[in-house]
Design goal:
Blueprint lengths: L9 E4 L5 H12 L3 E6 L2 H11 L4 E4 L5 H15 L4 E4 L15 H30 L1 E6 L12 H20 L4 E8 L8 H4 L3 H7 L8 H12 L10 E4 L20
Parallel strand pairs: 1-2, 1-4, 2-3, 4-5, 5-6, 6-7
Bound molecules: NADP nicotinamide-adenine-dinucleotide phosphate.
């Protein structure tokens, strides 16, 4: 799909049972890589691995469960002999509404899964393999981490934090390990359903490219970032959003500015 070669590389993709994570696993496998897909349940992880096919395997691991994460790292090394790629993709958003109306439980869950888990998995993989042999890490941020939106302020703050930490880790783990992030706009997945499901035409029509994102749009960017084609890219945040962040496109499109 991507035209990139990841033959002989092994990747762990967290939160890969569906959506962007599954598409990323498929893109890495299509480029020749081995993939370990995680989910909170073994059943979903196995089902996703079966969809990917080839050498892919599924492992149950809640993203913030350190013992499960370590088991996943150990199993990956036993099975494939290396961990060259880590895609921290698992993400959650249980909070909707103004930030001052949220509670500590929701705050902690968002920051545990979206911010702490990528740091935890990166540290485990670094200790087990990448620190000595090198590798590439991609964190899944969001364009929400680059601006402000109504009702998802805590989620967006967690994505701003992972953008900051991506750059921090890019420096701390250099020169052997590259650490980058992707920042998707609205993508057709379960997590983002509230943002597009009942008003897709309006959301799609607002951005420059006239459609919402598909998981494969993000997967192609991740496959690039973990490949040798990006060997001089680190600490970068790649926005993939159809132009959503540029502004309300219909106002700019031919004829609109003159009101004709
Ligand atoms: N869709 C968008 O518009 C959009 C935009 C910007 C950023 N993102 C980010 O993209 C990433 C993927 O989201 P998605 O849109 O693809 O959502 P999705 O389709 O709902 O998939 C979320 C995945 O994360 C897994 N997951 C959730 N909580 C987990 C946990 N605690 N531990 C381990 N796995 C967990 C789920 O697996 P199980 O349920 O099987 O455990 C599932 O595989 C997230 O980081 C999200 O914040 C999405």
């Amino acid at each position: 799909m991507t035209g990139l070669d990841l033959t002989g590389r092994t990747a762990i993709v967290t939160g890969a049972s569906r959506g962007i994570g599954l598409a990323v696993a498929q893109a890495i496998a299509a480029a020749g890589g081995n993939v370990v897909l995680t989910s909170r349940t073994q059943e979903s992880a196995d089902a996703a691995a079966a969809l990917v096919g080839g050498t892919a395997i599924g492992v149950a691991a809640h993203a913030v469960d350190e013992e499960a994460a370590q088991r996943c790292v150990d199993l990956t090394l036993e099975r494939f002999g290396s961990i060259d790629i880590l895609v921290n993709n698992a993400g959650t958003n249980p909070a909707f509404g103004p930030v001052i109306d949220q509670d500590h439980g929701r705050f902690a869950k968002i920051f545990d899964v979206n911010v702490w888990a990528p740091v935890l998995w990166t540290s485990l993989v670094h200790r087990a393999w990448m620190g000595e042999h090198g590798g590439s890490v991609v964190n899944t941020a969001s364009i929400g981490g680059l601006g402000h939106e109504a009702n998802i302020g805590l989620y967006n703050a967690s994505k701003a934090a992972i953008i900051h930490l991506t750059k921090q880790m890019a420096l701390e783990l250099s020169p052997k390990v590259r650490v980058n992030a992707v920042a998707p706009g609205v993508v057709r997945t379960k997590l983002a359903e509230a943002l597009w499901k009942n008003h897709e035409a309006a959301v799609a029509g607002a951005n420059a490219l006239g459609r919402i994102g598909e998981p494969d749009d993000i997967a192609a960017a991740v496959a690039f970032l973990v490949s040798d084609a990006a060997s001089w890219v680190t600490g970068e945040v790649m926005v993939i959003d159809g132009g959503q962040r540029l502004g309300y496109a219909p106002m700019f499109q031919r004829g609109a500015a003159l009101g004709v």
